Each structure stands twice: as structure tokens, then as C-alpha cells.
């Protein structure tokens, strides 16, 4: 085992905090390990003037970090699992997923308590197809304003862009100690979260000597939930280019799945809530895909 383990991460305050959470977990089990954090700038950190769907390719927030792993410039990488493509680069693997934080989205506003209070004509900030399509499908006359930037920047834009509010991941607010800004934690019946949202993943090379160590901090329940979310996302073809959300919550021997698949303008969408058992995943997955790919009569994606 190396004396010093080099850990790759993005440079935002949230990314660094998530890395600290992962390393604290590791040190609680292996107190003698020594880590050095290496900040890596990704393409997603350099382009702020356009929505992600206008940037070509996949893995906007991890591509350069994975390249550093493959070139052995770092030993492991810490990611938000919602940023990780369903297909990893050859030679890499997710060795551990930590116990998930609350995966729901949050409504942040200085004037309104929840989405129901919004009057027609309200402007809501988000650059996510998933969020915007579900907002537009609420039956209100809302205007979605694309915004990028870190959590603090997007909160500030409520005033600078004259917005009624913004939609952010609640887990990010909590990890930064900003949860008081959340006026309403949005239930998945209203806005389905992204696959992997709230979960921190640790990626290493397939031949890494860290595999056995990381296995000790892997949360089996979260891993099982995220694995199913990512499988359905892969089969549906969902990502930042498609309005798609999926969340799985374990309930003992069964689980509850919320999923959303829609068009960019919010006019056509399918939203489902299904109960399944871990012992019959294949049949469950086939049934979910069939429902998600069955738009309203006469509509096409």
C-alpha cells in the first residue's frame, strides 16, 4: 500500500466537501491511511455560458478526472454519482458508494414557500432538462430560465436574474450547511430526482490495491438502489440531453421506484410510481421500461 493516496476531485466547494466526507469515512475504518487531495478542472467547470446539453460528449464533470486515474496521476476519484455516465471508461470501476444523503430536489426562493404558491408568469432557474420538463408539466404558466454555476452562485441569481426561485439538489445544500435556504423539499411525486442523486461514489482502476479497502465503506442498500437507477437510465437512454429522472427507495424486502420520462417542452411525459421486490428485478425492469416508453395516445417523443 502506498504511503500517500492521491485523491482526484473537482475544485468546487461542494466537490471538496464531498471528498472530505468520503475520506472521513475511510479514516474511520483505516485511521493510518494518508491522503492528498488533487484538484482537477473538468470541461464542465470551464464552460458556464451555455447549458450542458449544448456541450458535446458525456461525463462533463468527470472526463479529465478519469483520464488522471488511467494515467496513474491519481489513485482514486470522488464523484457525485449523478454526474457519472452509465458506461465507465475501460479499466475503471466504482469501488464504493457511500450511504446516500436525501436525494430529493429543493425549491429555493426568497418570496414563496413552495411551487403551488407561484403565480402564472413566474420565472424559475434551472439548466436541467429533467427539472424544467417537470416544472412545465405542472399545469402552471411558468418560464424556465437556464442558470449555471455553483450552489452559492445559483442562489444569488434569484435576485440578480429577478427569479421567483431556483431548483437545487437538497443534498448539496445540506452538505454545504445551506439547508435553511430550502423553502420546500420537493417530493418525487412532483419532481423525480436524477439517477444517483445524493450518492457519493469512489472510482478506481480495476487493478487498484484499494479495492478491498473501499469495499469496507460501501453501503449495500445505496449501491443496490443506485445500480437499479443507473440500469434503467442506461436502457432508456437518459442523461443530461433527455428529460429523465429515476429514484429508488428501499423498503425492507421491496422498494418504491419513481420515474419520469418526457419531452423538452413539458407537453409529453410519463411519470410512474411502482412497487417492486429485489427478487424479481428482471420482470420489474421490463415492466417499467414498457410504461416509460408508452407516451400518451397520438404523441411521439
Outline of this structure?
By secondary structure, the protein is of the alpha/beta class. The chain has eight helices and 13 strands. It has a five-stranded mixed sheet with strand order 2-1-3-10-4. A five-stranded mixed sheet has the order 7-6-8-5-9, with helices on both faces. A three-stranded antiparallel sheet has the order 11-12-13.
What does this molecule look like?
It is globular and about 60 Å long. Among the domains are: 5-98 and 199-218, Periplasmic binding protein-like II (D-Maltodextrin-Binding Protein, domain 2), CATH 3.40.190; 105-185, 3-Layer(aba) Sandwich (D-Maltodextrin-Binding Protein, domain 2). The protein has helices at residues 13-29, 63-70, 129-136, 151-160, 170-175, 211-215, 220-236, 281-292, and strands spanning 5-9, 35-39, 76-80, 92-97, 105-108, 123-125, 143-145, 165-169, 182-185, 200-205, 244-251, 254-262, 269-277. The protein is an alpha/beta fold and 301 residues long. The protein is built from 8 helices and 13 strands.
Rg, alpha carbons:
19 Å
* Class per helix and strand makeup: alpha/beta
In the sheet with the most strands, the strands line up as 2-1-3-10-4
Which CATH top level class of the domain at 5-98 and 199-218 fits? Answer: Alpha Beta
Please describe the biggest sheet, giving its number of strands, its sense, and whether it closes into a barrel: 5 strands, mixed
Number of helices: 8
Shape: globular
- First-to-last CA distance: 51 Å
Would you identify the regions where 5 or more consecutive residues have pLDDT less than 50? none
What multimeric state do the chains show? Answer: single chain
In CATH, the homologous superfamily of the domain at 5-98 and 199-218 goes by the name Periplasmic binding protein-like II
Q: Return the CATH architecture of the domain at 5-98 and 199-218.
A: 3-Layer(aba) Sandwich
User: Which topology of the domain at 5-98 and 199-218 does CATH recognise?
Assistant: D-Maltodextrin-Binding Protein, domain 2
Roughly what is the average pLDDT, rounded to an integer?
Answer: 91
Percentage of residues in helical conformation: 25-40%
Which band does the percent of strand residues land in? 15-25%
* DSSP E strands, number: 13
Summarize the helix and strand pattern as letters.
EHEHEEEEHEHEHEEHHEEEH
